Amino acid sequence: MKILIVEDESKTGDYLRQGLVEAGFVADWVQDGLDGLHRGLTEAYDLVILDVMLPGADGWQVLQGLRRAGKDLPVLFLTARDQVDDRVKGLELGADDYLVKPFAFSELLARVRTLLRRGARAREPDVLKVADLELDRPRRRVTRAGRRIDLTAKEFALLELLLRRRGEVLPRSLIASQVWDMNFDSDTNVIEVAVRRLRAKVDEGFTPRLIRTVRGMGYVLEETPWD
Ligand code: CA
Known about the structure:
alpha/beta, five-stranded parallel beta sheet, four-stranded antiparallel beta sheet, 11 strands, binds calcium ion
């Protein structure tokens, strides 16, 4: 995940960049509004953290420039001025969230993670499909060849992950972190059991088989012509 920070105060900018990098993000930091707008328009970021008072162009102009160019990535505003007027103005221009300075880094990180999750969901279709398998996310419903399949919450999350990243071999460690929100360093049995159960529900009695094990690597969901 790549984040752009536009903040003219060196201390804040440096602190943000370091903290985000330590939290596992790729973070670029620029100090001028025009540089920020240029970067936001020419590079692929997942989120922008935007100060309001900036040299070159202010935060509102940067936001407006991004939205006019059709960039719908989440924007988190940092503002020292916590007046209602500023918040309303930012919202009208399409900001996604605010943080009033000074703030705790943990608070910023929580907001960033929420916005990234929301952004990722918004970009995906409501119904994920491969062959005759359909997963309807808002209705939490799965069907295969029109037949309803009942899944547990974990099985649903696992199938959603496999469908979202269809054709990609997903390592067990990635599945563990995304579906169980944990790191399974040694015990991957939980995942094997869950995949086996999911496969029994989704693939048994249907052709083609969609979920396969790639030995020593992980699992992949795809429709292959030779099945
Ligand atoms: Ca500033």
